Structures are given as structure tokens and as C-alpha cells.
Amino acid sequence: MMKQFPPSELLNSLPKQFFAGLVKKVGEYIAEGHDVINLGQGNPDQPTPAHIVAKLQEAAANPLNHKYSPFQGYGYLKQAAADFYLREYGVTIDPAKEVAILFGGKAGLVEIPQCLLNPGDTILVPDPGYPDYWSGVALAKAEMVTMPLREQNNFLPDFHELSPEVLSKAKLMFLNYPNNPTGATATQEFFEETVKLASENDISIVHDFAYGAIGFDGEKPLSFLQVDGAKDVGIEIYTLSKTYNMAGWRVGFAVGNESVISAIELLQDHLYVSLFGAVQEAAAEALTGPQNCVKELNELYERRRNVLIDGLRSIGWNVTAPKGSFFAWLKVPDRLSSEEFSNILLEKAHIMAAPGIGFGEFGEGYVRVGLLSSEERLVEAVRRISCLEIFKK
Ligand SMILES: Cc1ncc(COP(=O)(O)O)c(C=O)c1O
Q1: Which domain-ending residue is among 255, 288, 321?
Q2: Is residue 287 within 8 Å of residue 80, measured between CB atoms?
Q3: Going by CA atoms, what residue is nearest to atom 12 of ligand 1?
Q4: I need a labelling partner for 232 at 20 to 30 A (CA). Which of 68, 139, 312, 315 fits?
Q5: Domain span including residue 356
Q6: pLDDT 10s digits, 261-270
Q7: From atom 14 of ligand 1, which residue's Cα is the shortest distance away?
Q8: Is residue 392 part of a domain?
């Protein structure tokens, strides 16, 4: 008889995937033959630029890359990350001590709580926020304290809300700008305030810069490391997934505070050998090669944003335009919960939008839609929403 081996308590403590039910329901609609416009997920729709793919093809043929790569990754990729930070942000990075190569940003984000926290330690996490932060918290058996992101504060946490007791216990803080799910961006003053708070309270900052390349209205999103003293208190996680449409390649890196970088490398030494050498070569090409693809991608997302936001406003939905990321965070009608509204969109308009409650308590009242469909599809989505006659001009 086939035995059933129960998962460990640790696995049972992992947060449940909120969106799994919705994704299943969408699958059912598609299987029934409905033309569903999927605005609910965050998977870049454009291909990786050709020069990066060509580098992978060439590097895959090199027998050197068929061997184990060095444990902590190739020096040339760390150098490329340092060159990228200097070129893009004017930030000087020591490639030998201040860069850790990651299997995508997600891996780093989930690893970090285990690198720095002991069971019961407190970690500060934005609400709403990217659900993968919670997985790292659970694996480290840490205590999560959420920091509400409110529209009236431009979706930045208000540090005055953190009690002295929480501040004295907190060891780690996650931040993410341009923000998933709200599309908000950070200001220089906010990052300065963060460095001050972190330094006074011995809190290590992890700034998730996944959408660093996507900023609208002529504003280039700020790197946390551009602020004086940032490296003393934290790191930034950069991924190639969004900037270069390389989500499937699983490559990113952490940059900043030497002690945090060495803790990540230590954990990774025990978990994996580094990435396929050909992927590392292609990643270095992405970071240091031609960058017009990044500008074109940003323009594509901005055009889509404008089509969506202008369209929704024209049918009477009073929405705020995101400043960065490839998401728009839309307020749902007062009488409906985010789940009820997203169910209406799916059932009556065959549009999938992610209910805000899936990103945390303070996500209630919003849905998140992605700018990952063509302008034509976004126009069609607006038309379908208009037919619901929920919004009045
Ligand atoms: C806020 C945020 N951080 C990190 C990631 C991780 O991206 P990756 O693991 O592909 O680098 C994502 C991906 O959706 C994200 O939205």
C-alpha cells in the first residue's frame, strides 16, 4: 500500500497560496471556451532581447560552462552588477564583497530572513505586499509585523505608527518601490528617513527593487543605495526578470551591506552550486550590453498604462495612475469587497484582476491589474467593464 508521508510542521506553517483558487477558476472559464483577459498575474509578456538570447546560445556551447560553476558565481557577473549600479545609479559597489548572485529575486527574498533572524525575531513587512515575503518569514519562524501602506501617504509606510517596543524588537524590514501591488514609487526623503530609522534601531533593510527599471512620466525610480548611509544598514535585491524580460531564466543579485551579502552567500553555499555558467554570461551581457531595450520596454508599459487609465477614467472609474512597476492598483466601488468585485469582473466580463485582499489586510478595497497585455486587449477590457454599467460618467 502506498504510504502517505505527512509534510513537516515547517511546511505546514507556510502561508496558503491565496490566488490558487482564482487561477483555477480562470482555467475553468478558459476551458469552457471563454476569451478571458488575464490582468491578474505578473508574468512579463515580451520576449528576452535577442542579443541576450544570442549570448546564451553561444555560451551554452562552451564546455567550460558544462562544469560546475564556482560556488558563489562568476566574478565577471559580480563585476557586471557593480558596473550596472555605477552606470545606472552612480553607486559604487565592491564586486568581491558587496554582490551575491541569486536564482532570481524571489530566492534571495525568501532566504534572507533565514540568514539574519532567529525564531521569534520580528520582521517588518509592508501591507499590502508581495506574498513571497511571508514565505521567508514562515521558514525563519519569525514574527511578522505589518506596516500599512495607505493611499493618503502615497503608499509609503508611516514609521510613526511603529511603537517603540516593535522598533526595539525589529531586526529586518522589507520595502519595495516601485511597489507591487500599488504602483507607488519612493522618494529620496522617505529613503533617508528609512536609513535613519534603521541605523537608530539596528534594523537591517532589504529593498526589493524588482521594478527598478519601470518608472513613468520621465521619473527614473530611485535605488535605495543612492541614499547616503544605505549600505551601512541594508541591501537591495535586483532581478533581471522584469528589466530584461528574463523571468524564466532565474537570475538576480543582492547588492549592499557586506555582512548581509556574506550571510546570503553562506546559506547558498549549503543549498546550491551557482547558476548555469551560460545564464551568468547572458546576464552579464544584459547588464552591460545595449540598453535601448530597457527604454523601449518602459515606453511600452507607459503607453499601456495611459490606454488603461485614460480608458477607465473615460467610463467613469476614478482611478489613480501608477508611477512605476507594471501594475495599476484600482479602487473598487465602495459597496463591494475586492473579492466580490474581482468575481464580477471574471464572471460577467471575463477579466481576471487580482483582489487586493490577497496582498494583505490593507489591500482590501482595491484590485491589481497588470499592464502585461497589448493595448488592444486593454481597450477591450475597458469596453467590457463599461458594459457592466457599474461606473457612471
Ligand atoms: C515585488 C516583487 N519582488 C520580487 C519578485 C521576484 O522576481 P524574480 O524571482 O523573478 O526575480 C517579483 C516577481 O513577481 C515581485 O513582484
Answers
A1: 288
A2: yes
A3: 210
A4: 139
A5: 9-47+293-387
A6: 999 999 999 9
A7: 42
A8: no
**Look-up: residue for cell 564586486?**
95
Domain presence at residue 1 = no
Q: How many domains does the chain have?
A: 2
Question: Which atom, in ligand 1's list, is nearest to the CA of 180?
Answer: 1
For residue 383, report the distance from its CA to the centre of ligand 1, in Å: 30
CATH number of the domain within which 136 lies: 3.40.640.10
Query: Candidates 48, 106, 326: which one to mutate for ligand 1, based on the most atoms within 8 Å of Cβ?
Result: 106
Asked if residue 134 lies in contact with residue 125, where contact means CB atoms within 8 angstroms, the answer is: yes
CB-based contact 185:175 (threshold 8 Å) = no
Does residue 204 share a domain with residue 154?
Answer: yes
Q: Give me the tens of pLDDT residue by residue for the chain, a chain 393 residues long.
A: 899 999 999 999 999 888 888 888 889 999 999 999 999 988 999 999 999 999 999 999 999 999 999 999 999 999 999 999 999 999 999 999 999 999 999 999 999 999 999 999 999 999 999 999 999 999 999 999 999 999 999 999 999 999 999 999 999 999 999 999 999 999 999 999 999 999 999 999 999 999 999 999 999 999 999 999 999 999 999 999 999 999 999 999 999 999 999 999 999 999 999 999 999 999 999 999 999 999 999 999 999 999 999 999 999 999 999 999 999 999 999 999 999 999 999 999 999 999 999 999 999 999 999 999 999 999 999 999 999 988 877
Q: Which of 152, 193, 151 is nearest to 173 (CA)?
A: 193
Q: Which of 185, 143, 176, 203 is nearest to 359 (CA)?
A: 176
How far, in Å, from the CA of 109 to the mean position of ligand 1?
A: 9
- Residues 249, 300 within the same domain: no
Would residue 113 count as lying in a domain?
yes
Ligand 1 atom at shortest distance from the alpha carbon of 179: 1
In this predicted model, what pLDDT tens digit does every residue of 119-133 receive, in sequence order? 999 999 999 999 999
Residue type, 279: V
What predicted TM-score, i.e. pTM, was given to this entire model?
Answer: 0.97
Cell readout for 265 is 552567500
As given in the structure block, the three cell numbers for residue 21 are 483558487
Ligand 1 pocket residues where CB is under 6 Å: 42, 104-106, 130, 176, 180, 208, 210, 239, 241, 247, 252
Tell me how far the alpha carbon of residue 231 lies from the centroid of ligand 1, in angstroms.
22
Q: Is residue 107 part of a domain?
A: yes
The number of the ligand 1 atom at minimal distance from the alpha carbon of 42 is 14
> CA-CA distance, 339 to 153, in Å (whole number)?
24
Ligand 1 atom having least distance to the Cα of 102: 11
